[in-house]
Amino acid sequence: MSEISVILPVCNHEKYVHDTIKSILNQSFEDFELILADDGSTNDSLSVVKSFEDSRIRIIARNDLHNRTNALNAGIESASGKYIAMMEANHIMHVDRLKIQHAFMEAEPSITVCSAHIKYFDAQKQENNAIKLRVPGGLIENPLLFFLSGNCIIHPTVMIRNQFLKKHQLLYENYPDAENFKLWTEIAKRGGQFHMDTQQLQYGQVTNKQDDGLKRQSSDHIINEIVEFLAKRHPELEVILANFKKLQDKETMTHLDIVGFFHHFFTKNKDKL
Prior knowledge:
Helix content: 25-40%
Shape: globular
Number of strands: 10
Distance between the termini: 42 Å
Largest sheet: 10 strands, mixed
């Protein structure tokens, strides 16, 4: 049994996956297993994966996984580590990422999820300083309120306590391009604590996705779920939310208006509720 299980979905990432795996195997912290989950690559991604000979590597390659979400879940279900470190096939780990995050999680048992800042590089592997993660460092107080502003946690920088996921039976859900955000909110609903390290422990490939509209719709749906979860704690707020939705149907109130109200209300009254 390893201290850390690194989970890496590899479907159709032939172009980048070699460098990604190399950066993981070269970590200064060596007590980990690397779970490579492929949900049916149609290029040579799996061949690249199998070219590595390292006893820490485990490969899950099944066509019946169907998509990335199921591949991630297969990785979690087979993970034996105390901690789970998420990774993506177009990213590069800082050589000390696992060492730094493991030491932090060992020192701070109240933290469920730790993450870090990231620096992006372009197709020519030149650093791109124009894209930066602008979120505060340290403990994220009231994570559900934090997530009302959207998802600012970059998935492949995250380390999670495996025991917390198993205790609450949490896995990824099929939210188009927002399954990560959904998982963070479900962890927060169950009292999980989040910490953001301001060190840049990850390097990511710049991509131009065409499904930003779909991602935004999924994120808005998740934010609505947070609002409903918060409102259910107080019957008076449930009535207010129901009336707000009627106004939204009449187009006299917007989604942002509703979210803004609840964000302001819970922030202002966080010590009273």
